[in-house]
Design goal:
With 437 residues, this protein is an alpha/beta fold. It has a domain of 204 residues: Rossmann fold. Strand 5, helix 8 and strand 6 form a beta-alpha-beta unit. The protein binds pyridoxal-5'-phosphate (PLP).
Length: 437
């Protein structure tokens, strides 16, 4: 398998910021003592087997099995604890839930449909269904989480949002919510990503947000997270950190999954209608931090459906399966022999991240989900295939999931495969013009 990944040596350049967030905070012991949640640590599922209890709540300390936790500097511990309390209270409050549902329906355009792909299915020899998160307002699944967090931030009395972004989709969604709720918003974005996602940078500015360049390390998503967290430390009283994926310290991995659960809940209901009460054989999603995958998996974790997360070959955290601590939680991440975080490499800015959310690490470790790497070349092929066969220009991130289906078509013959189309490709068209000449 390792032959599929770029040479480790090329990533070995030390990342200046890694140490800051890698270092366990003084009171980490409190969070380390956490008992792994019973379900997660005991259950080992053959992939595809129904295992009740998967994707349930983490332990009180924010652990999914041996992964997760809250590894943050001392100054952030009260902020994470405050957020944990606020989320628990809001999520149990029918008024908050109703307000969020109303926004998701009348502002974001949910439910997103499922599209059956006759042409593509014929070409690949399996039935491909697309969950159309690309049709949401702002063009991806990111709006689900952001509307939830912005509502929560307002409920907590915060007046500012800070966020990181890779492809710009989470940044655009956060800027959108900030405009809607009349909040100040600062988005950190790696200099490299600012270059390849110009359109989204312009959209964020148009929406009234400030975009700040993260110039350290690989100048991509990992570095933007470092900068956003630093900013949060310095302004925690007034500011909510609107983290864009199922990563970071507790409660983020859990909270962001819950805000994206709507994808899986809708899809399970829609599939039951389409498949005579049945479920798809396989559910596939791309994985950066893992929020769109967590969202759709959560609707099928207790069924017989096989769950497949697709990583870029140059950012395959699960492929390497080395646990470590990055950005506030324990999970699988790409690191060198000194524990320094390695730089990911992917054609898609949204997947250019060396880690994966802790719940995915647990799903991989327990065998409930499997994670497969695809190369940039396979992604470019898949991007074109969907445009040509179905008239849908997908985000490069989501094209990873299709690239795996193309590769695995023999294994998938005759099966029903549900693909979470996490975003639309407008943002990637300029980059693909360059790639395809
Ligand atoms: C369209 C799209 N899909 C997927 C991702 C990856 O994020 P996650 O793994 O959290 O879904 C991104 C990130 O920017 C994205 O823009």
């Amino acid at each position: 398998m390792s032959a599929e990944y770029p040479n480790v040596a090329t990533w070995n350049a030390a990342t200046p910021n890694a140490a800051t967030w890698n270092a366990a905070a003084p009171n980490v012991a409190t969070w380390n003592a956490a008992a792994p949640s019973a379900v997660a640590s005991n259950a080992v599922a053959p992939n595809g087997g129904a295992q009740p209890g998967f994707m349930a709540d983490p332990s009180a300390e924010g652990r999914f099995g041996e992964f997760g936790g809250m590894y943050v500097p001392e100054t952030l511990v009260p902020a994470c604890q405050e957020l944990d309390r606020a989320f628990r209270s809001a999520w149990a409050d029918p008024t908050f839930r109703a307000e969020l549902t109303d926004l998701l329906t009348h502002y974001a355009g949910r439910p997103s449909p499922i599209t059956g792909c006759d042409n593509l299915s014929e070409e690949l020899g399996c039935t491909v269904l697309l969950k159309r998160e690309d049709l949401n307002h702002t063009g991806s699944h990111k709006i689900n989480n952001v509307l939830g967090q912005a509502l929560l931030a307002r409920r907590m009395g915060k007046t500012r949002l800070v966020a990181e972004t890779g492809a710009g989709q989470h940044g655009v969604a956060t800027a959108t919510a900030a405009a809607l709720f009349d909040m100040e918003c600062i988005v950190y974005m790696g200099t490299v990503d600012i270059g390849r996602q110009e359109l989204n940078v312009f959209r964020m500015k148009l929406l009234g947000s400030e975009v700040r360049a993260a110039k350290s390390g690989s100048q991509t998503l990992k570095d933007a997270v470092n900068e956003a967290m630093r900013h949060w430390v310095s302004a925690v009283e007034s500011t909510h950190y609107c983290l864009g994926s199922v990563m970071g310290p507790h409660p983020y991995p859990w909270m962001v999954r819950e805000f994206n659960r709507v994808i899986g809940d809708e899809a399970a209901q829609q599939c039951a209608g389409l498949l005579d009460g049945g479920t798809p054989d396989v559910v596939v999603a791309c994985v950066g931090g893992g929020s769109n995958a967590a969202g759709i998996f959560s609707g099928f974790a207790d069924t017989d459906a096989e769950l497949v997360g697709v990583e870029p070959a140059g950012g395959a955290a699960v492929g390497r399966a080395v646990p470590g601590i990055v950005h506030g939680s324990r999970s699988y991440l790409m690191q060198d022999e000194w524990g320094q975080v390695l730089e990911a490499q992917s054609i898609s800015a949204g997947l250019d991240y060396p880690g994966i959310g802790p719940e995915h690490a647990n799903l991989a470790a327990t065998g409930r989900a499997r994670y497969e790497p695809v190369t940039d070349a396979e992604v470019v092929e898949a991007f074109q295939l969907l445009a040509r066969t179905e008239g849908i220009i997908t985000a490069l991130e989501s094209a990873h999931a299709l690239a795996w289906i193309v590769r695995a078509q023999d294994e998938l013959a005759g099966k029903t495969v549900l693909l979470n189309l996490s975003g639309r490709g407008d943002k990637d068209v300029a980059q693909m013009m360059d790639v395809l000449g």
